[in-house]
Specification:
By secondary structure, the chain is an alpha+beta fold. The protein has one domain: Yope Regulator, Chain: A (2-Layer Sandwich), CATH 3.30.1460. The chain is 39% helix and 28% strand. The protein is built from 4 helices and 7 strands. Strands 1, 2, 3, 4, 5, 6 and 7 form a 7-stranded antiparallel β-sheet that branches. The two termini are 27 Å apart.
Length: 166
């Protein structure tokens, strides 16, 4: 049994659905898994074992910013938008200082926000995997709540939300 099987088992032990992801030839990863957390929130995570940095695992979560939220951000004054998104970055970084956080394509008007947690070989185990999953689920809740509370317009109606995307 290899590390991929161990990680899949540890995730399943936490009642997380796991699917193997086919890795295309030439991809910079040895293997990849999709992990779907069902509670308290439904969040899709990606788990990858990099080829070039074989001493670690990377668990990532991607939030797609809703078109309506992007439109609301675009309508703001540049300084207001930069201040708001900088506050989100501070909030996300405060929750997980060791996470890698990327606003794509740019900080003040993101299409997606990627949050990744790196686990190094000496720490890879069920507790580090479980803790990383919990941190990323919390990051998801923080990001979505921030957009829905700080960026949403009152006329958007029910069912409008920034959502997970992977």
């Amino acid at each position: 049994m290899g590390l991929k099987d161990d990680v899949a088992r540890w995730l399943k032990d936490e009642e997380i659905d796991v699917d193997e992801v086919p890795v295309p030839a030439g991809a910079p990863v040895e293997w990849a898994l999709n992990a779907t957390v069902k509670a308290p929130l439904r969040v899709l995570l990606g788990v990858q074992k990099p080829k070039t940095k074989a001493d670690r695992l990377v668990i990532s979560m991607v939030v797609k910013v809703a078109d309506q939220h992007k439109a609301a951000l675009s309508s703001m004054a540049p300084k207001e938008r930069a201040k708001l998104m900088s506050q989100l970055l501070v909030n996300v970084t405060s929750l997980c200082p060791s996470c890698i956080i990327v606003f794509q394509p740019q900080l003040d008007l993101p299409d997606t926000i990627v949050v990744s947690k790196v686990i190094y070989d000496e720490n890879i185990g069920p507790s580090a995997i479980g803790e990383s999953v919990r941190v990323l689920v919390n990051e998801y809740a923080l990001i979505v709540s921030f957009f829905n509370a700080e960026v949403a317009h009152v006329d958007q109606g029910p069912g409008f939300s920034t959502v997970i995307h992977m």
